[in-house]
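ok trying again, last paste got cut off:
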Amino acid sequence: MLTVSHSIALPESELVERFLRADGPGGQHVNRTESAVELRFDVAGSPSLPEEIRTRLLQRRDRRLTAEGVLVIQGRRFRDQGRNRDDVRERLVEIIRGVLVPPKKRLATRPTRASKERRLVGKQQRGQIKQSRSRKPDLE
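nice, full thing came through this time. structure:
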């Protein structure tokens, strides 16, 4: 059981782990051991997630989320399979915790008069700088 919060826990049956060979340092040993971990979690089909959290997870623009709604996390940060496994599980928990709090609604605001004036003054100064760079033909 992977505990996300006091109300959300993911059973092991919903987590699919695959072990593969990692690239990077390790000498000949790296060619024989499968220390990298790929964790798959079906967000769209998980009965453990509340509907609002599932919706927020699926709406995230995350390249690790497939078109079918499966979250794929790869871990190859460490040389040890156990540490990589713990790492991907912790990253999954952090992703889900990131959507537990609903995003705040944006309040429409208007720029102040002073900020508008500062912007216009800055534009005028910039235009003068650019104008001073141009060559003016001699009037003779």
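cool. The longest strand covers residues 36-42. The first helix runs from residue 51 to 59.
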